[in-house]
Design brief:
Oligomer: single chain
Distance between the termini: 65 Å
Number of helices: 16
Low-confidence stretches: 447-464
Number of strands: 6
Strand order of the largest sheet: 1-2
Radius of gyration: 24 Å
Helix content: over 70%
Order of helices and strands: HHHHHEEHHHHEEHHHHEEHHH
Length: 464
């Protein structure tokens, strides 16, 4: 079976699997770290024990998910050496320092203060504990800053030159870091992380509220999550529109594939294709359900601005249209559902029924994993839309792979799938068990963490 698939396709599939398994963890922890900082600040301000109970519950979940994120992220760095050494050699002078900065300035910041956040409230005092919690939250955002800068440079490379060995070497670090697509993609990803966390927290609160409408901790979770859904979802839609305009400017082939436009519209007036079946062989989107003119209005904010289709690009420079077409629509569809739930919760809050509408609570539970689905589909759209290049327009994916045998890559992919589903499946199951506990029943890490220094024997402790 493996002999029928090329080493290139297997290497791409392996990296797609590992990066997909990884991205769901930081997408959750970025938002959860900020949520913990807000909860801790509210506890210090109000001295309401319910905030502390919710903080302790989600702090434990954060520790579990953060650990899975670290482990899953390490795997990808090894693949650069095993499967993509040509890519690593070509872009190393530019991307290597950026990833090093991420470790030195962001990951070490998170890891260095994580222990204080988890174990330190009674050891360093409430003020320093709050500072450590805020630093962990800031570290997750700073980590996203560097990673999105790296990935955005691969989408819109700037500030480089090519040396005699064919390597990309830095000429202007500010142009590299703040490349044209970076600000839009960074904002879009951070907002996506906040919404991902909000809907997980909201689903957890809704689950507890369906059992006990008066549960104070569940009310806090659900109320804060629904505020985030109501306020941030519309902002995310505008941020996505801005990113779409940026992508149209710098990666028009990606936009054409996302919209299912095989045909160029020199006079604008392009329709919005809601659904259809892109057929790359015939260069058409079959069974298309269209809204006239709306495609031009959304993409260019004008009716008569020319709009490039896939026919303007050589066939070997086009991204796979069908995958991008549907991943983009799933992402947008999930966003619309988030918007509906947010407005629904706003109506319920206005009527004083936020915790008492069963169908709203059930809808929030169903939407719990929605953020993960949207993030995965967004990354599929972004990364598949960059194909057939690893560095857009400059370095092809086929020229970035190592000379590995297909069966070697295939067997390692099978091993990854088995190990990932066992390890991360177990971790996810444990995190869900922690979410199922009411905040009053939680067992915080602070209570089970180390309280004695090494060298004190169990007998001595038992005798005290």
């Amino acid at each position: 079976m493996l002999s029928d698939i090329s080493a290139l396709d297997l290497a791409r599939l392996q990296f797609a699997f590992t990066v997909s398994a990884h991205i769901i963890f930081p997408a959750f922890t970025i938002g959860l770290a900020s949520y913990l900082a807000v909860l801790n600040a509210l506890w210090l301000w109000t001295r309401d024990q319910a905030y502390l109970a919710v903080f302790e519950q989600w702090k434990t979940i954060f520790a579990v998910v953060f650990g899975m994120g670290v482990v899953s992220g390490v795997v990808m760095s090894y693949q650069f050496g095993t499967n993509w050494p040509v890519f690593a050699d070509k872009v190393g002078p530019v991307l290597g320092p950026l990833m090093g900065y991420e470790v030195l300035t962001a990951f070490f910041l998170e890891a260095g203060f994580l222990g204080i956040m988890l174990f330190g409230r009674k050891r360093v005092g409430e003020g320093l504990h709050m500072l450590a919690t805020a630093i962990v939250a800031g570290g997750t955002l700073f980590s996203a800053f560097w990673i999105l800068s790296v990935n955005s440079w691969m989408q819109t490379p700037r500030g480089y030159s090519v040396n005699a060995q064919g390597q990309f070497v830095p000429e202007d670090w500010l142009a590299i870091i703040f490349n044209p697509s970076f600000p839009h993609r960074f904002l879009h990803m951070v907002l996506a992380a906040y919404l991902t966390t909000a809907f997980v927290v909201g689903a957890t609160g809704a689950w507890h509220l369906l059992k006990d409408r008066n549960n104070r901790g569940a009310r806090i979770m659900f109320s804060m999550a629904m505020w985030m859904a109501l306020i941030v979802t519309p902002i995310q839609i505008f941020a996505g529109d801005a990113q779409g305009l940026n992508t149209l400017q710098y990666q028009p082939a990606k936009i054409a594939a996302m919209e299912g436009h095989f045909e160029t519209y020199p006079n604008g007036r392009a329709p919005l294709i809601l659904f259809g079946l892109p057929d790359e062989a015939t260069g058409t989107t079959d069974y298309a359900v269209e809204v006239p003119l709306l495609g031009s209005l959304i993409l260019t904010h004008s009716l008569d601005t020319p709009l490039v289709g896939l026919d303007a690009f050589p066939k070997d420079a086009r991204p796979p249209a069908a995958i991008i077409f549907w991943s983009f629509r799933i992402m947008v569809g999930v966003g619309v559902l988030m918007l509906i739930v947010g407005f629904w919760s706003g109506l319920a809050r206005w009527k004083g029924k936020l915790y008492h509408w069963p169908w709203l609570l059930r809808a929030a539970m169903v939407m719990g994993p929605a953020g993960f689905l949207a993030v995965l589909c967004g990354w599929i759209t972004t990364e598949v839309g960059r194909q057939p290049f690893t560095v857009y327009g400059l370095l092809r994916t086929a020229d970035s792979v190592s000379a590995l045998r297909a069966d070697a890559v295939g067997y390692s992919l099978i091993a990854f799938v088995v190990v990932y589903f066992f390890v991360f499946g177990s971790g996810t199951f444990y995190a869900l068990r922690l979410m199922s506990r009411t905040p009053e029943d939680r067992i915080g890490i602070d209570e089970i963490g180390p309280t004695r220094t090494a060298g004190i024997t169990p007998i001595a402790q038992a005798g005290e």
